[in-house]
Amino acid sequence: MGISLITIFVRHSAGCKYAGDEFARRCNCPKHLRWTSERKQHRRTAGTRSWAVAEEKKRELEDQLAGRTPQPQEGGHDIRGCISVFLQDKRVQGISEDALAKYARELDRMRTYCEAHGTFTIQGVTRELLTGYCSTWDTVYPSSQTRAIVRARCRSFFRYCYEAEWITRIPALPKITVDEMPTLPLSEREYETLLEAVDLTFPDEYRRKRTRALFQLMRWTGLALGDALKLRPDELEDMGTFYRVVTSRQKTGTDVSVAIRPDIAREILAVPNGDYEHAANGVRRTGSARYIFWDGKSDIVQTWTKRIIAPVFKRSGITRGGNMTSHRLRDTFAVDLLQKGVPMEEVSRFLGHTSIRTTEKHYAKWGKGRQDRADELVLATWKPSAGSNPQSRLGKRHVDVESSESSNRRSTHRSRPAGR
């Protein structure tokens, strides 16, 4: 059986004066499409409140169901072409290939959703349509932080479309409430257990060395996972008695400079990377690499998180507590410094935060140095100062009066004639 005629109808909002007439063209309520296929009735939102736009959606859907190539509305810009130009603009800006790939992946998901709902032009994207698209994110992006980042990327795309004058206003996307992740530093024993789990998880020496070195780097420098994985050998500077990690955060561009113990630095620099060949005694290096861990091509953060970091944490029995698993190493570095009295301002600089408020938000309760100074200030107010206590002043006046009276009595006694 073929597809029946597609009909536009209205679902009226409460209080609409046209309620009861599902074909009211002047109504400003949401428009929907209805048709029958294989004896089953289908309904779909048109994503608009305009009857004229709903007519365009209807024609696009008819083309799609009939297998015809949909034609963009006159004067419109198809979503696929807009995304292509936007990505070209990002490439000209010089963003990393990794970030560019994420933009491409997320915008392509949006385009697929829009086209599946009969919208093929950027002008046809509505708030209602985007709300429906965002409602699919819970399964694709389980983390609220990731959903917030995806929302920001989509909004960046629509802002570009607005500045290019393809659309007259930026369509609103639902706001994302980001769940606060608890600060979960590892205890010394937990960290030892984690390193022990590396040996139990990977039988080959190649992966054991790389994984252990990464954990050591993050634990003792506080680098985020992406920054640690893309660290270059020349960013580990030999200062004689210690080494210094000098790099910048990919997320914010903030410079980071952290001292690190020589033995740990040498362990990191000894990590096998670059081009390899298999020898009788295992894998050996045959070429140099620009990065310590990254090959410069793959999405290394995703790869390491799923294939290496998550299995080791699971083997060790250490939970993530809602955090990105590797972030517990960053927490360990920050909390260790704060508990040993390092000022919050310095810890913020080591972590590469653009504002100390970010550091305080996550680590305020761990700031032992700040708390000690605050306690000293409060305790100092308990000590009475000279002339500050009314009772003290009263007591002093009482003593002064008694002294004066005693002096007067002695004076009178001396001036009285001797008795007969």
How are the SSEs placed, and which strands pair?
Layout: E1 7-10, E2 31-37, E3 40-45, H1 51-66, H2 79-93, H3 97-116, H4 127-134, H5 137-140, H6 144-163, H7 188-201, H8 205-221, H9 225-229, E4 236-238, E5 243-248, E6 255-260, H10 262-269, E7 276-279, E8 282-285, H11 300-316, H12 327-339, H13 344-351, H14 356-363, H15 368-380, H16 390-415
Helix pairs in contact: 2-3, 3-6, 7-8, 7-11, 8-10, 8-12, 12-13, 13-14
Listing every helix as H and every strand as E from the N terminus to the C terminus, the arrangement reads EEEHHHHHHHHHEEEHEEHHHHHH
Shape field: elongated
* Low-pLDDT segments: 275-287, 392-399, 410-420
The second-level CATH architecture of the largest domain is Orthogonal Bundle
**Order of adjacent strands in the largest pleated sheet:** 1-2-3
Strand proportion: 5-15%
What number of structural domains do the residues give? 3
General description of the model:
The protein has 16 helices and 8 strands. The longest helix is centred in the last third of the chain and has 26 residues, at 390-415. The strands form 3 sheets. The protein has a 3-stranded antiparallel β-sheet with strand order 1-2-3, with helices on one face. A 3-stranded antiparallel β-sheet has the order 4-5-6. By secondary structure, it is mainly alpha-helical. It has 3 domains: 7-66; 79-163; 188-374, Intergrase catalytic core (hpI Integrase, Chain A), CATH 1.10.443. Residues 275-287, 392-399 and 410-420 have low confidence and may be disordered.
